[in-house]
Design brief:
DUF6612, 13 strands, signal, 13-stranded mixed beta sheet, about 290 residues, alpha+beta
């Protein structure tokens, strides 16, 4: 779910009072119907998610990449991660796996990485399946990863703030337990959001992705959110988007699907790095020619 926070931004668009005051259309056989308006639900959800002290996040991302100049066909990549997050101070424990499948290797899936990470105020500890060794990231890498984690976070509070200017474009439904919000963007509007998302990044992240983003365009984006009727927490989010990038005269297209499930709201007291991790961790060599001190 990392692209979405970079792509969506709080562009200043006028809210349609008629759209904001509409009530949710019920799905079939809904018994617990609510007459709350879209604007009321949005504000209550913003407040509930802004008061989060901790949350658990399960995320799945799938990408199908095709290259017009590549005779070997398409490449599919999938990522699955499970994260515990505590907000203040921001700490995180995450496990993630990345797999790849290529068209010319039908039926074969290659495991690219299995990573476990602890992010704390001072340090980032990481272990992958290649080295099978806990490492402490150098200061400059740790700072960039922390900024990236915050900027790319799929936390509902961030998403709601960024989506508020598009409130008049949502469709609004409900089932017995949830309010269901859907948003569809395409063409110039989606590309404007992509550009505005660049402005939300810090300078280091901007310099890292600037060249890629300049040559990228979004054909369309579909977003769907489920908000719990009692707690007003966002419990589920799905994003689908089609992107195209032109580089060196070649066109690369990507279909991306991201699904996020949120749970354990305010149930995680603290995230501690285990003593065995601290004791066994070694310092990673800096890619900038210096060793973390």
């Amino acid at each position: 779910m990392k692209k979405i926070a970079k792509v969506l931004s709080a562009a200043a668009l006028a809210l349609s009072l008629g759209a904001c005051s509409m009530t949710a259309s019920p799905e079939e056989n809904v018994k617990n119907s609510s007459d709350m308006t879209l604007e009321q639900v949005f504000k209550k959800s913003q407040k509930a998610d802004s008061e989060l002290t901790s949350v658990h996040l399960d995320m799945e991302s799938k990408q199908m990449i095709t290259n017009d100049g590549n005779e070997e066909g398409s490449m599919d990549m999938s990522t699955a991660s499970s994260s515990d997050l505590v907000m203040d101070p921001m700490t995180m424990h995450q496990t993630s796996t990345v797999n790849m499948a290529m068209e010319e290797m039908e039926g074969t899936e290659l495991p690219l990485a299995e990573v476990e990470m602890y992010l704390t105020e001072q340090e980032i500890y990481m272990k992958d399946n290649m080295q099978n060794q806990w490492t402490i990231l150098p200061n400059e890498m740790a700072d960039m990863m922390k900024q990236s984690a915050l900027q790319e976070s799929a936390l509902p509070e961030n998403q709601l703030k960024q989506l508020e200017p598009y409130l008049d474009q949502f469709t609004f439904k409900q089932d017995d337990d949830h309010f269901i919000l859907q948003l569809s963007l395409e063409g110039d509007q989606a590309n404007d959001i992509l550009k505005e998302g660049m402005g939300m990044m810090n300078e280091e992240l901007q310099s890292t992705v600037e060249g890629v983003m300049e040559n990228m365009s979004i054909e369309n984006m579909e977003l769907k959110m489920w908000i719990d009727k009692e707690s007003f927490h966002t419990v589920k989010m799905e994003v689908q988007q089609k992107l195209e990038m032109n580089q060196n005269g070649e066109s690369v297209k990507m279909d991306q699907t991201m699904k996020s499930d949120f749970s354990k709201f305010n149930e995680i007291d603290a995230i501690e790095v285990p003593a065995e991790v601290k004791e066994s961790a070694v310092e990673m060599d800096s890619p900038f020619g210096q060793v973390n001190e």
